[in-house]
What we know:
Structural class: alpha+beta
EC number: 1.7.7.1
Largest sheet: 5 strands, antiparallel
Distance between the termini: 81 Å
InterPro entries: Cbl_synth_CobG-like, NIR_SIR_4Fe-4S, NiRdtase/SiRdtase_haem-b_fer, Nit/Sulf_reduc_fer-like_dom_sf, NO2/SO3_Rdtase_4Fe4S_dom, NO2/SO3_Rdtase_4Fe4S_sf, NO2/SO3_Rdtase_FeS/sirohaem_BS
Number of helices: 17
Helix content: 25-40%
Number of strands: 24
Bound molecules: siroheme, iron/sulfur cluster
Strand content: 15-25%
Keywords: 4Fe-4S, Heme, Iron, Iron-sulfur, Metal-binding, Oxidoreductase
Protein name: Ferredoxin--nitrite reductase
Pfam family, one: NIR_SIR
Oligomer: single chain
Radius of gyration: 23 Å
Shape: globular
Amino acid sequence: MTDAATSKASLNKFEKFKAEKDGLAVKAEIEQFASIGWEAMDETDRDHRLKWLGVFFRPVTPGKFMMRLRMPNGIITTQQMRVLGEVLQRYGDDGSADITTRQNIQLRGIRMEDLLEIFHKFAAVGLTSVQSGMDNVRNITGDPLAGLDAEELFDTRDLVHQVQNAITNYGEGNPEFTNLPRKFNIAITGGRDNSVHAEINDLAFVPAFQEGSRESGVGSREKEFGFNILVGGFFSAKRCEAAVPLDAWVAPEDVVAVCRAVLEVYRDNGLRANRQKARLMWLIDEWGMEKFRLAVETQLGKSLRSAAAKDEIDWEKRDHIGIYPQKQPGLHYVGLHVPIGRLYAQDMFEVARLAEVYGSGEIRLTVEQNIIIPNIPDSRLRTFLAEPLLQRFSIEPETLTRGLVSCTGAQFCNFALIETKNRALATIKALEAELTFTQPVRIHWTGCPNSCGQPQVADIGLMGTKARKDGKPVEGVDIYMGGKVGKDAHLGSCITKGIPCDDLQPVLRNLLIEHFGARPRQEAVLGA
Ligand code: SRM
Ligand code: SF4
């Protein structure tokens, strides 16, 4: 065998099919797929390559695909939201959408025969779903209050767009970055509260001031704004790691180039033989940080400045639910709680209407799977707050509801070991009926060890697993605690394994009483 043939023979099935045909190639074949139908499609095209266009075959609902958009910085216009609603409307009860843990939207119920038209509709309003799955860079997260927050250090909106445009070639697809060893997450934050969970991204930019080179006049040096860089954060079924410092600082104008350089180093050197070890952190482990940093500098064509002595993440994380003044006098942003992130076509039209009538035609999404409507003037707040949608998408949900996040789970995801979203809601409603709370508690559910629902960043994280009850296999959870977000963020760890879901409520009740100051309602009433 030749060297090339030997190395091809040793490739895993994902590397093999990527080498045979780039994922993006299916873009030219959508019409043909539609004409033959999903059942007749080549399985690799259908189950894998379509994900390069953000189209996911769902074995749980065959023929009804999921579409994952890209929402840079979690910002969407009302016009775009309406287009998403129109797409869903066609599918009746099969159509629904979810706000994701990456400030993004996924649509469900999509039929192959409609794809081409959907792509045209997306293009007309500047939406794209390209490169949102498989071995690509996921939605790039940014501060959800960018440009609104009086205390922000940097408005991330333009930068996040620039990075997305570089990676996706303005949404057209960019073959330079369509064959990474594995998925890749990027976050850029310009606020003080680490609103994007920087620590769980492969590459994250956090605000930091560097001693400038110019004198400021009174003997001190001017401070220069930029970002300290973190690398290698990720969750997988095999291993979860918080990102570690690259010991590098960049000015905002160099962020796009650094993203490119890191991606090129990862693309060309990342481990590919074993997909369990293909995330960036494994390469950093193998090389050591010094060698990795040097490779990034070589790719960048210039040396990186050392990290600033400290970053500016010094606040507790905000959840943005409620009414808050903006830095623009007389304007407010209002955070609506969307239970478990689920939206239907009518909700999308209604949210779009509210953002248009009361705001400026803009809607924002958070990594907690909620919605922010910005730019509401004082004079319109009162009528806005009386809108019926706010009964369901509340600005003052109960304590546990407020901090609830859940991944997709068994309803649509074939990796799931348990049902998550509906169970998560039912469980916390039952707990709220029993207990009163004096402090927020963030509960995250995730249906399997892939950790899309990020249980490791929660106060209480619940990860689907197989458990046993009365000798029989049942749906269960492993419980995580200790996740800290915002300032001094760190990951939580597993404290108990294999609790049957049917037995979970009393276990959570005790944890809430022991660790989070919850009190039984009866006792709270008597004590009052
Ligand atoms: Fe995820 C795979 C859903 C955020 C780690 N994730 C999947 C798939 C595509 C599996 C599949 O094909 O069924 C899920 C689609 C289910 C569906 O129908 O909705 C899925 N992941 C999600 C979403 C929708 C969860 C949610 O309800 O919000 C999130 C979409 C984000 C987005 O808009 O792009 C989502 N996934 C995450 C996160 C959280 C984050 O990014 O902050 C993680 C952990 C962080 C990380 O990646 O390091 C995450 N997802 C995974 C993994 C484990 C990756 C690994 O290295 O092993 C998988 C499995 C895989 O890629 O093979 C996975
Ligand atoms: Fe699916 Fe598991 Fe991710 Fe939940 S954590 S969406 S069950 S892959």
